[in-house]
Write a structure and sequence with these properties.
The chain contains three helices and no strands. By secondary structure, it is mostly helical. The radius of gyration is 15 Å and the shape is elongated.
Length: about 80
Amino acid sequence: MSKTPEPDGLPALPQNPFMTPMQAAGPVGQSVRRRDPVAESRARQYLAASKIADAIEKALAVAPPLSPEQIKLLTAMLRAGGQR
């Protein structure tokens, strides 16, 4: 998988939609050891997204089907990025 540079010129982390939280934690540790705060911030964003995706997958696996209104509400929450 190739890593294309981000607009800021830094290499992008792999954009693997199936990355587990454990896999996403590796780049955090690497950037901390390198003392690279920009890379650490980006790696922590990927880790947070991975944890959120994991939680969503687990919740949907045991939940009954969601209504269109519920899907819209959850989508709005994700689009807002945690802002209320």
